[in-house]
UniProtKB/TrEMBL annotation:
Residues 85-224 form the Sugar fermentation stimulation protein C-terminal domain. Belongs to the SfsA family. One of its GO terms (molecular function) is DNA binding. CDD domains: SfsA-like_bacterial. This is Sugar fermentation stimulation protein homolog. Residues 14-82 form the SfsA N-terminal OB domain.
Amino acid sequence: MRFHNPLQPARLQQRYKRFLADVDFPDAPTAPLTIHCPNTGAMTGCAEPGIRVWMSDSDNPKRKYRYTWELAETSNGETICVNTQRANTVAGEALQSGLISEIGPLRELKAEVGYGYDKRRIDWFGLDQQQRETYIEVKSVTLATGAQGFFPDTVSVRARQHLLSLIDMVNEGHRGIVLYVVFHTGIKQVAAAAHIDPVYAQTCALATAAGVEFYALHCRITPQAIEAIGSLPVANDEM
């Protein structure tokens, strides 16, 4: 996934009200520039005042906040994509290329397909080589402790509900997959964040026992593009 326009660097002052951030921007030297923050999570380790950030420019004068926060750089030089909306695109490219061999090639790959009794939308749907319906829920991972990544970074009832829906799909004879898109270049393994959301971790264990599959995508992240380059282990034994 390439960024359509060159990202512009700035320095973070603060993130607040979940969807807003103030940055020091060279083109606005006399006052902080308020930009859109497309991340509803806690953003632990991603939003420290003074860190270097990169923004995309909507080039839309009618938009209230012209710029969107895309990337952040940690104090030890790791790069994080904070825009969770990018995860589905990166996941879709990886699925189309068959990057994760365990998932295998999928036919009729479609995004945002309604499924289940309540017709909620799955991030990606396709048919595997055995003609099984395959339902893939994509999650963005940015929380890191050393090289260990965790999801979620805050209590998430919605993420737990997604797992329960995938369990239903597996029980009906289909495939249910959680695909963690690792948006932190320092993360080498992913696990459920039992120390933050123990109910989610418990539900992951139930999902694993039911046959839901868990995979993680390793990404190269630069101000020019985000590219899935391989898989990372998911610590199911810790769920």
